[in-house]
Structure formats: C-alpha cells, structure tokens
Amino acid sequence: MTADTRAVLETFSSRELRSIAAEHGVDLHGCKGKADVVGRLARSENVQAALRTPPSQLRPMLAAQTVPALQQLAADLRVDVSGCEKKADYVGRIAASPAAVPLLEPPPPPPEPSVLRPDLAHATADPLVQQGRDQDVDFGLVEDVLDQARMRFEERNFDRTLELAREALLLGRGTLDGLERAAWAYALLAAQRLIEGSGRVGRDVEPAAAILRDAKTVYASGALAASQDLLVKLQAATKALYSEEVRNLRSAIYATQEKVGQSAHVGGDVSGATEALARAREAMERAEHARAFELVAQAERLAAEALERRVQEIHARIPSAEKSIEEARHVGADVGEGARLLEKAKVALARREYVLAAELVQRAERAILEAQHHQIQKAMELRMRQIQKVQALVNYLVPIADEAAGFDLAIEESRRYLAEAHDVLDQGDYVNGTFLAKLAEDGLRRLVPRLVEERAKRGIAKPLTGGCETCGSADVAFLDDGWSKCNACGALWRWRAPSGLWEKFRSLLRE
Fold first, then answer.
1. Residues 332 and 247 reside in one and the same domain
2. Is 509 within the bounds of a domain?
3. Statement to judge: residues 179 and 269 lie in one domain
4. Does 331 share its domain with 301?
5. How does pLDDT run across 393-428, given as a tens digit for each residue?
6. Are residues 239 and 128 in the same domain?
7. Does residue 242 lie within any of the structural domains?
8. Which residue segment(s) compose the domain that 481 sits in?
9. Which of 468, 479, 471, 492 is nearest to 396 (CA)?
10. What 3-state DSSP class applies to 477?
11. DSSP string of 172-233?
12. Pair 153, 161: CB distance under 8 Å
C-alpha cells in the first residue's frame, strides 16, 4: 500500500515543504503558493524516494482523520502525543511511531462463516467442497451459468444459486468432472447456508440437513453423476425452507408496518421504526433472515415506544386545554363545545382509542380558540359601534358650534372638548371620547336659544315645509339647532347652511 507523492506532500506545512526542498536540492524559484511547491517537489525523484518510508506513507491516512480520532488512535497505539496542539502535530507524532506501521498493511479478508451446526460438518467432503467452489471451469455456456451462480452466491442469494447450480449440471452432463464438482460445491454450500439461517430462527431443518449430509457423503465418494436425484431433493427441501421463512418474514414485516402506521396516524415520531423496517427489508433481500427478524423486532419496539410517547403527550394536553377553557370563560366566551369534546377525549383515552382521543383533543382546542376569537370579535364590534356612535355625536355638534361661532357666541370650551374627543376617538378610546362629547353637547345645547334669537335678529327663519331627499316623505321636523330630521326614515340633514367657519373648525379638528 503506497500513497501518492503529492498526497503525502499535501500533509506538510509550507515551512516543512521548503525544508524538504532545501534538503534534497529542489529549486523553488518562481513558486507562488503551496500548490506550486508541492508540484515542484512531486516531480523530484529524490523526494519521491525519500517519501516511500512508512512514516511518510502514513501521513495521508492520518491527515484524513479528525483530531479526536487521532487522539483515540494515539491512545490505542500507546503513542505519546503530549505537547501536540494542532492536527499537524498529531499526524507527525503518530506517523513517526513504529507502532503505527501496521496501519499500512491491507485489512485481512473476512473469515469464512463458521459452521453453525456441527452436525452438518463432514471432515472429508468439506475441504473438497471448498476446492470445488474455487475451481475454474473453462466451458462456454456452462462457465457463464456457473459464473452467475458464483455472483449470486457472493450476493447471498442462495435461492437463485441453487437454481443456477442445477442448470449448470444439466448443461454440463458428460463434460469435465471439474464442472460437475464445482456446481455441486455451490449447491451444497448454498443449501448449508439456507439450513443454518433457517435453524437460527427456530425452523425444523432436520429433513433438509439429513439430505445435505447424504449429499456431502456422495460428494466425498465422487459418485456425482449417479446422484442427481439427491441434489434435486436437497434443492427442493432447502428451497421450501427458504420460501416458508421468507413468507414468515414478510408477514412479520407487514404486521410491523401496520403498527408503525398506527403510531404515525396518532402523530408519533416513527422515523426510527421506519428506518429499522427499511433495513429489515434490505436484510431480507440479502437473505440475512435472522438479521431481518432482529430488525423487525427492533422496529416493532420503536413503534410501541413512539406510540407511548404520543399517548403521554395527549394526556399532557388535556390539563392545558382545561386551563384554556377556564381562561375563556373568564372573558365571557361560550366554551360548551370545547368542554364537551374534551370530555369525549378523556373517555377515548380511557378506552385506549388513541387516534380518536388525539383528534378530539385537537378539535376541543380548536373549538376553544374559536370561542375566544368569537368573543374577542364581538367585543371589538361593540367597541367599534360605540366609537361610531360617539363620532356621529361629534359630527352632529360641529355645525352647531360653527353657527354659534358665526354669531360670535362663546364656544371656546365646547370647541376644545370636541377637539379632544376627536383625538381620543382616533386612538380607540370611546369611553373618554363619549365623556368629552357629552361635555361639548351640554355646552352647545345651552347656546341653542341664543342661536334662535340671533337668527330672528337677522331675519333667518326655519322652513315651514320640506321633503326628505332620502325617502321623499313630507313629515320632516326642522329643529332649533339647525338640523332637519325625517320622522319617516330618520335621515338627518342641515336646514341651516354652514358658514365658512365650519370648514375652518373642521380643519382645526383634523389638526
């Protein structure tokens, strides 16, 4: 295992690279950055030879790890890293240690799986089976089929391996003995793996195991051509085990999927259970049935835990909803529907109807919020009607004040009250607005007799008849304060035309 020279050089700092260049006589003139220096050094044969040492070859491998990982590696290798602060310090210290040299060795190949059932072992046949599995057969189509069997076996697709092995035997009848022994080897190994896997989950594998032991005896004797029926029986027996086990596994997956769906329907967090179930399906596809059953059990446990957590959350929401009901009642909201739904939710929880309970609690919370919103909306509408009522009074009084000002009557106090009422109404304060408007009204009502006198002095008289412009009725009352009122529809309008002071007064109000 050798690391590329450039990859090794990349692990050094710029100062260390220049030191290497000086040591090996590499001219760095014209290099503008670290990349240029690394490229110049990588082309030097002296540098390449110097970096073939184990410490140099270890550097890229160590540089790819994090500082905590390097600290753990140093502890495992018993390398003293005291005084190291930066990652480069850890890389250099560990790479220089002889204890790190074994890291360059390639990892050993995974060991062959041990025989889980000693009764399936055959001292004579097992070594021959291993030799037959590793034997190359140079024979056209038969070789292609056997290669497929080899690939399926490496993929742990033992069911397909059996079928391909049988096909290879049929094609290779009367051909080389090596082909026959290789096909039998794969068939025996695949059958043994299936029997071992089925035994781990408690299946009755003894009939298939007995056929496998007989088949190994035949394999050891070499009488393969006369024992094709035995291999057919072995394939049928082991395939039946595989098929039934797959059916059981699929049934378990479907049942667990239903439980996961129930937890998800209630609103539980089933991400862990869903992931475990997906891994179980992948294990089933790889024919790792025992592992798949373990993952199914894990998914079922995680789904149950998610359901329990969700049930506790639903229980915790009930006191919160009850508190919201009390708060809504204090502001006068009608929370009867929310309280009724909450009681039904409690009954559903007692009956373990969690989906219904979650839905009822949600509906109760929504009903409470709607009741609060309705009450708030009613209060806002009432407040708006009060403001509009007071504003109408202010608008009614303004032309009266205008006429009084035109006759030089004292209206300063009333005008101040009207201005203040206008301001507080803009701020939404209808209480103080009403109070100020009433004060202004009291002051102006006292001036109405004076208005009548001033009009008489100037020859201004109220109309005797008139019609309502809104409804056309002739039943109209002409009031002393200058307003006309239709007794039929209640419409108001001024019979006394406003003066220029009115507009001035309204502008003062706006200011």
1. no
2. no
3. yes
4. no
5. 888 888 888 888 888 888 888 888 888 888 888 888
6. yes
7. yes
8. 462-495
9. 492
10. strand
11. TTTS-HHHHHHHHHHHHHHHHHHHHHHHHTT---HHHHHHHHHHHHHHHHT--GGGHHHHHH
12. yes
Note the pLDDT of residue 1. 36
What own/partner pairs with CB < 8 Å and gap ≥ 24 does 485-489 have? none
**Same domain flag for 327 and 366:** yes
Tell whether 97 and 116 lie within a shared domain: no
Say if CB 466 and CB 484 are below 8 A apart: yes
pTM (predicted TM-score): 0.34
Query: Do 36 and 54 belong to one domain?
Result: yes
Q: Identify the top-confidence range among 330-334, 362-366, 371-375, 405-409.
A: 405-409
* Share above pLDDT 70 across residues of the chain, in percent, rounded to a whole number: 85
- The SS3 of residue 294 is helix
Q: Pairing state of beta strands 476-478 and 483-486? A: antiparallel
188: in domain? yes
Which tokens sit at 161?
A: 């391996």
pLDDT of residue 415: 86
Query: What order do you get walking across the sheet with 476-478 strand by strand?
Result: 476-478, 483-486, 492-494
Euclidean distance between CA atoms 29 and 104, whole angstroms: 35
Question: Do residues 95 and 167 both lie within one domain?
Answer: no
Coil, helix or strand at residue 484: strand
Structural domain includes residue 426:
no
Pull the structure tokens for residue 81.
């890293």
**What is the count of structural domains for the chain?**
4
Number of C-beta neighbours around residue 256 at 10 A:
23
CA distances from 51 to 24, 179, 342, 374 (A): 12, 49, 76, 81
- 324 phi and psi angles, rounded to 5 deg: -65, -35
